[in-house]
Amino acid sequence: MPELPEVAALADFLDRHLQGAVVTKVQIASFAVLKTADPPYTALEGQTVTGVRRFGKFISLEAGGLSFVFHLARAGWVRFTETPAEGQLKPGKGYLAARLSFSGGSGPLALDLTEAGTKKSLAVYVVRDPADVPGIAALGPDPFSPGFDADALAGILAASQHQIKGVLRSQSVMAGIGNAYSDEILHAARLSPFALAASLDPAAVRRLYDAIHSVLGTALDEARGKAPHELKDTKRSHMRVHGRAGEACPVCGDTVREVSFADTALQYCPGCQTQGKILADRRTSRFLK
After folding, report:
1. Do 113 and 122 meet the contact criterion of CB atoms below 8 Å apart?
2. Are the C-beta atoms of 65 and 128 separated by less than 8 Å?
3. Is the dihedral of CA 167, 231, 222, 270 positive or negative?
């Protein structure tokens, strides 16, 4: 799933390439992805793109007073081409869910939204204001917003009775962080993913705050300026624990471990994060000594 750094890079790329272009056609190949009916998606046609913005993990393409908002979910992605194929999309065929065609200064352009796999969660909204999208309206503070400082984070954690891994992933608490970067942030902060948020002392809160900015900041720097097809490999190449179960931790050399859930998993380093303890599968709800 693309998270804050990749979504920010995508929004920046699309803003640079599409601002000033005219939307010539909007096609929806999978109507399950379209979550709104008013205004109709065809109302975008003939409108000039004024900008592309990010809200958490949502991207909003704005044209003619309307916003084409999409959330890529777990298996969605963007394909951008300056040599688009012509013709009508066939509903329900392949991975392609939607296509926006444009006329720009250098010729025709196309933005495709694709989704792999059988579990379909990609979502598209056409709205008059991005805040009309329920997921955007419910977002918590962005980690890079001016008001998000160490004191703000301390207040969020003190008010939560949940484990820190879940707090970081909750979009209504903090916008933009998902499963992968929460693993990386907790590793950098030397915190167990199962630590209760409210139990963190001031030193741990400060480590967590610094880790959020250092991990996401580094990822943003790496992703900035890259085309969509380059971003997935860029994300994977800089992970220290996420997706690396069984490998040696690059910090302490201990073996990176995994905890599996029904539909996801987390990775952590016992040496760096749990004082050497191996966490049990959460379906057993206990520690292994």
Report:
1. yes
2. yes
3. positive
Determine whether 115 is exposed, middle or buried from the number of CB atoms within 10 Å of its CB (0-12, 13-18, 19+).
Answer: buried
Burial string for 81-110 (b: 16+ CB within 10 Å, else e) reads eeebeeeebeeeeebbbbbbbbebeeeebb
Question: Residue 186: enclosing H or E segment and its boundaries?
Answer: helix 179-189
| Pairwise CA distance, residues 15 & 252, whole Å | 41
Token pair listed for 1: 């799933």
Question: Model's pTM, two decimal places?
Answer: 0.92
- Please choose, from the candidates 221, 241, 222, 225, the residue with its C-alpha nearest in 3D space to the C-alpha of residue 233: 222
- The tens digit of pLDDT for each residue in 5-57 reads 999 999 999 999 999 999 999 999 988 999 999 999 999 999 999 999 999 99
**242/233 Cα distance (integer angstroms):** 14
233/151 Cα distance (integer angstroms): 35
